[in-house]
Amino acid sequence: MTFGPLAAAPVNPVTSARADVAGTPELFGLVADLLDYPEDDLVVRAAELAARAAALPDTPPARLVVDFCRWFGTTDPDAMREAYVATFDHSRRNALYVTYATHGDTRRRGAALLAFKRLYDAQGFVGPVDELPDFLPTVLRFAAVAPADAAATALALAHPGIELVAASLSASHSPWAGLLEAARECLPPLDEAGERFVTSIIRDGPPTEEVGVATDLGRGDGSGVPHDDVLDRGSDGVPRGEVALAVEGALA
Fold first, then answer.
1. Residues with Cβ within 8 Å of residue 129, at least 6 apart in sequence
2. Is residue 8 part of a domain?
3. Nearest CA to 241 among 141, 103, 122?
């Protein structure tokens, strides 16, 4: 990914979307790396990632990341990959696509995806071509390097989804729960309306205006990409859902 010349975001800035936690940008960047699928090129960086975690200011979120790095560096890579697939590909509630957590695979999600895409474009930020713009590692990488107002806007868009995935991972005692909790603790509390919304999704699940939703969200290959019967493929071969295709059409 690249981060080009900066320009003003075309969305209303959110001025208080980070809690006052020292080292937050660095923590977001590290959490983004650790939330990726543990390919060999990530696993071999375990010592480097642990050193980055140890270098963070000593805060409760940083300690959660240090704890995760300890597990990451001592767990069999094949077992870790199996656990990653089981965690993020086989459960809708754990999907790392933050607008899916809040909107399901509904047409309303298209507007949320478009908001992320426009925000990235306005700041010259280019994420992975094979991921949707609401993929949490991409959101966190953007927040780690973007100007404060743009980062705050991205985090505000992602905040309900982060809360939902954090709650789900915590309930299942996932090793990755600490990473979501670390990110969550760097955000301010949701307001009353936001808390009601998150509570309703936890209780009832994502909205169910379906546009091709399967029970098993992931393809089972650790990519984090939903099944082909959930996400169709665009002309470039990249998986795309109906709502994502609508976003691409709007941007064309």
1. 236, 238
2. no
3. 103
Nearest CA to 179 out of 61, 58, 82 is that of 61
Boundaries of domain holding 208: 21-251
Classify each residue of 128-166 as buried b or exposed e, where b means 16 or more C-beta atoms within 10 Å of its C-beta.
eeebbbbbbbbbbbbbbebeebbbbbbbbbbbbbbbbbb
Residue 178 within any structural domain of the chain: yes
Mean pLDDT in residue range 230-237: 35
Question: How many separate domains does the chain show?
Answer: 1
Per-residue pLDDT reduced to its tens digit, 25-63: 999 999 999 999 999 999 999 999 999 999 999 999 999
Rounded to a whole number of angstroms, the distance between the first and last alpha carbons of the chain is 21
Would residue 3 count as lying in a domain? Answer: no
CATH of the domain at 128: 1.10.3480
15 within a domain of the structure (yes/no): no
Could you tell me the pTM of the whole model? 0.76
Sign of CA dihedral 237, 242, 246, 251: negative
Three-class SS state of 35: coil
Tokens 């069999």 correspond to 76
